[in-house]
Write a structure and sequence with these properties.
mainly alpha; Triger factor/SurA peptide-binding fold; three-stranded antiparallel sheet; two-stranded antiparallel ribbon; 7% strand
């Protein structure tokens, strides 16, 4: 099983990125206004057991679709903690974006919503489909648009971090030589485009991780482990 997971890891990781994006798009980047058991407090923003459960359930359903028969109780047990971790990191990024003065205009928000395929009919945005979809999800347009705006704000900050990352030619060549010790003459020149992009993506991900850890270190974050266990 581990061999098969490793073989398809690149596809699996992209699928996980997509499912987390969709999960947070519809289910939980904004702190809950509903009174409930506090699981974490992030610089004054409360994350409740309801928030974690909502994200956890959607992660559970999506991971189960990805891993199918390889999905097991051991993996499932890690998802609740992962849901809380994602909620905390997302809240930190949104708070930092707001502190930096980043904003999402009404036009940007509208353009983004118009692109969401779930709200289209025949390739065109359908207001009725939009309203019916949100009604089925038990969320009002006002709340959804607030959450969408914050999702976009988080993404804008992540892009700023990524844009500050560069990979030098020597860095790319050294990484290729290390990963491909048996490469023949000319192989590097053929692969340089895609390999450079993969190295850039890797370095951008590392930069974002460092950036988030910095926010965690300087932030005031309290966790209620009993609340998480009981959720």
């Amino acid at each position: 099983m581990l061999i098969q997971i490793h073989k398809h890891m690149k596809w699996i990781m992209w699928a996980i990125v997509i499912l987390i994006t969709v999960t947070f798009l519809f289910f939980g980047i904004y702190p809950s206004n509903v009174t409930g058991s506090m699981v974490a407090n992030v610089n004054g923003d409360v994350i409740t057991a309801e928030d974690v459960n909502r994200v956890y359930q959607n992660m559970y359903d999506n991971y189960k679709q990805i891993f199918k028969d390889q999905f097991n109780d051991s993996l499932a047990k890690t998802l609740r903690a992962q849901a809380l971790r994602e909620l905390i990191q997302t809240r930190l990024l949104i708070q930092e974006a707001d502190r930096m003065g980043l904003r999402i205009s009404d036009d940007e928000l509208r353009a983004e919503i118009l692109k969401i395929s779930a709200f289209t009919t025949g390739g065109r945005f359908d207001q009725k489909v939009y309203e019916n979809y949100l009604q089925r999800m038990n969320i009002t347009p006002a709340v959804f648009e607030t959450e969408q705006r914050e999702f976009m704000l988080k993404r804008k900050l992540e892009q700023l971090v990524a844009d500050g990352v560069v990979v030098a030619d020597a860095e790319v060549a050294a990484a290729y030589a290390k990963e491909n010790p048996k490469a023949k003459a000319g192989d590097y020149e053929k692969a340089i485009g895609s390999f450079r992009q993969s190295q850039l993506q890797k370095k951008q991900n590392e930069a974002l991780s460092v950036f988030v850890r910095g926010l965690e270190n300087k932030g005031k974050i309290t966790r209620n482990d009993k609340g998480l266990a009981a959720s």
